[in-house]
């Protein structure tokens, strides 16, 4: 893209490098506002900083070519007016806008699950999962991920209440935990009899249902340990007197905000799964919270 632009405007391209172009693109991209039809720069709107809790947003009337921001509360004189750029995670805020929040309610984690290469049913499981088109994941920028990628948001409660994990992720785990052709055929037949969605209901075999969720728990706990190791590796963000040290410290702090936010999401998912898989030894059955169905 950059070569075409520079070639179309030779009068200015002689003094512009690709790095110059990328810098200019980043500046515009971090300040532009998107709508259904286009992306535009709105004077003064880019002066407003982001607050994930704010309900104030930029409103566009494309027919009148008019934009406005309506404050979500009364502001005192000299108080900074804040708006919400969008329900963006720290990963998107850091990539697109150059900052991260100490606590971001919209943080999320994208994880990828794979069918083990030594799984004798690997080919059949892969065909079934792709045939039934598990929803692809779309990130904050509208980019789709593969069929075996899932987004986890913070689970509000570890007691079984709340939204829990994405149904498509739990369905994937149920397929992966199948150990026979009969198991997989039963899942396919069930989907055909109902709404066409694969393994979206709890498995009738309680121990197999727990096994599927224990698989998820193991993978998420592995990722948690990787995050903890990265956070320890970074260490605290201590700013020294020099400008370079302060800039490095700021970047380290933003990286810590990103990692710690995603770690919080992963830990909430782990707690939810542990509760889901909890065994009631007195009754010899597995305990389920209010949200047992996918």
Output the helix-strand order: HHHEEEEEEHEHEHHHHEE
Tell me the radius of gyration: 24 Å
- Main β-sheet, in a few words? 2 strands, antiparallel
The dominant shape is: globular
| Portion in strands | 5-15%
SS-derived structural category: mainly alpha
Q: In total, how many beta strands?
A: 10
Description of the molecule:
With 294 residues, the protein is mainly alpha-helical. 43% of the residues lie in helices and 10% in strands. The protein has nine helices and ten strands. The protein has helices spanning 2-8, 10-13, 18-29, 90-97, 122-131, 167-176, 181-193, 206-234, 243-276; strands spanning 33-34, 39-40, 49-50, 58-61, 66-69, 82-83, 108-112, 149-153, 279-280, 285-286. The strands form five sheets. A two-stranded antiparallel ribbon has the order 1-2. A two-stranded parallel ribbon has the order 3-6. The radius of gyration is 24 Å and the shape is globular. The protein starts with a helix and ends in an 8-residue tail after the last strand. Mean pLDDT is 81; it is low at 280-294.
In short:
The chain has 294 residues and is mainly alpha-helical. It is built from 9 helices and 10 strands. The protein has a two-stranded antiparallel sheet with strand order 1-2. A two-stranded parallel sheet has the order 3-6.
């Amino acid at each position: 893209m950059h070569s075409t632009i520079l070639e179309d405007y030779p009068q200015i391209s002689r003094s512009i490098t690709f790095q110059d172009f990328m810098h200019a693109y980043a500046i515009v991209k971090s300040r532009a506002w998107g709508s259904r039809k286009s992306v535009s720069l709105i004077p003064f709107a880019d002066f407003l900083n982001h607050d994930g809790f704010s309900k104030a947003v930029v409103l566009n009337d494309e027919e009148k070519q008019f934009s406005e921001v309506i404050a979500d509360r009364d502001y005192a004189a000299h108080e900074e007016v804040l708006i919400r750029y969008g329900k963006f995670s720290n990963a998107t805020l850091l990539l697109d806008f150059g900052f991260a929040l100490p606590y971001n309610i919209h943080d999320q984690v994208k994880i990828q699950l794979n069918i083990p290469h030594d799984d004798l049913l690997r080919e059949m499981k892969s065909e079934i999962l792709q045939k039934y088109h598990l929803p692809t994941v779309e990130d904050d920028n509208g980019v789709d991920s593969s069929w075996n990628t899932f987004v986890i948001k913070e689970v509000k409660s570890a007691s079984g209440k709340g939204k829990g994990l994405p149904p498509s992720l739990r369905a994937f785990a149920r397929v992966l935990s199948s150990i026979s052709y009969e198991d997989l055929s039963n899942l396919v037949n069930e989907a055909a009899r109902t709404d066409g969605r694969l393994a979206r209901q709890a498995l009738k075999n309680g121990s197999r249902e727990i096994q599927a969720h224990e698989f998820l728990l193991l993978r998420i706990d592995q990722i948690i340990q990787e995050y903890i190791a990265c956070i320890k590796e970074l260490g605290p963000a201590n700013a020294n007197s020099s400008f370079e040290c302060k800039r490095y410290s700021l970047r380290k702090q933003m990286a810590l905000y990103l990692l710690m936010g995603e770690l919080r999401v992963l830990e909430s998912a782990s707690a939810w799964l542990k509760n889901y898989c909890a065994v009631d030894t007195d009754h010899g059955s597995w305990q389920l919270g209010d949200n047992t169905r996918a």
